[in-house]
Amino acid sequence: MKKDVEILENTNISDSKVIILGLPDTGLVGVIATAHILEMNKMQYLGSIDSVYFPPMIVIHNGEIMAPVRIYGKDNIISLISEITVPVNAINNFVDAIVAWLEEKKPKLVLFLGGLPAPNRLELEKSTCYAIPTTSELTKLLEQANIPLLVEGLMVGPYALLLKECKKKNIPSIALLSESYANYPDPGAAAAVIEALNKLIELNVEVESLLKKADEIRLNMRDLMRRTAKEMKQAEKTREYELPPLYM
Fold first, then answer.
1. Beta sheet of 18-22, edge-to-edge order
2. Which range of residues forms the domain containing residue 140?
3. Cα–Cα distance between 225 and 240 in angstroms, integer?
4. Under DSSP, is residue 189 helix (H, G, I), strand (E, B) or coil?
5. Burial class (CB in 10 A: 0-12, 13-18, 19+), 107
6. How deeply is 3 buried, as exposed, middle or buried, from its count of CB atoms within 10 A (0-12, 13-18, 19+)?
7. Torsion angle of the four alpha carbons 6, 86, 151, 137, in this order, in degrees rounded to the nearest 10
8. Among 65, 62, 74, 70, which Cα is nearest to 9's?
9. How many whole angstroms separate alpha carbon 233 and alpha carbon 214?
10. In Å, what is the CA distance from 41 to each residue of 8, 52, 183, 206, 230?
11. CATH label of the domain that carries residue 241
12. Beta partners for 133?
């Protein structure tokens, strides 16, 4: 019987990896950053994720038919990228499948890449990347890398549930979130996330080429941003990092 969410590995993915997830959210920061990492590191296709909840669609790259949610890898890094927004009614099942897969793979570190809606983004010359760790050991690691913590806020959506479940199951995880336009593809914010990754795990991925093709990226990702904004609105995603009333 087909599962609600299936993770299909074309080749066996061994354990003890750094696993990076780039899901569509604020400014498509995670998707843009992960796509650039895949390209620069020439990562190999390892598998895909399918679900009865996903819309009936495929994506085509370089003339090749691909699943919209894919897994890539090279050396000690595994990357998961999604070119569809996880529907609100599928988030729980999607997260359960991902967390079970992470438990099986026993990664040394899981990194969730995303955006932090910044009302003053237009005024910022450069985005700041903030972190949410699941353990005190990772907090120390972030301090050593000089990556600031997000100390107060609210968070909803797939990343919120993933962080909660990873903390509960002792899967070492960090969300890296850079200041971003809320509903506009933001390659500059994605570059800030990659720079944080370079400091944290010595990724050594340059961002100059990403910034040079920023206009092209914004154009190509308009449709995905529109669909993402619709799901974000449904999940009240644009309010996720506001301070709770207690702190107003």
1. 5-9, 44-51, 69-74, 77-82, 18-22, 109-117, 173-180, 129-133
2. 5-247
3. 17
4. helix
5. buried
6. exposed
7. 10
8. 70
9. 25
10. 22, 31, 28, 10, 32
11. 3.40.50.10900
12. 174
Would you state the structure tokens that stand for residue 168, as one six-digit string? Answer: 């509960």
**Residue at 48: amino acid letter:** S
| E-assigned strand segments in 1-108 | 5-9, 18-22, 44-51, 59-61, 64-66, 69-74, 77-82
DSSP character at residue 206: -
Report residue 183 as tokens. Answer: 């509903």
Q: Tell me, what amino acid is at 190?
A: A
Place of tokens 């962080």: 163
Structural domains counted in the chain: 1
pLDDT tens-place values along the chain, 248 residues long: 567 999 999 988 876 689 999 999 888 999 999 999 999 999 999 999 999 988 888 888 888 898 999 999 998 899 999 988 888 888 999 999 999 999 999 999 999 999 999 989 889 989 999 999 999 999 999 999 999 999 888 888 899 999 999 999 999 999 999 999 988 899 999 999 999 999 999 899 999 999 999 888 888 877 777 766 666 666 554 444 444 444 33
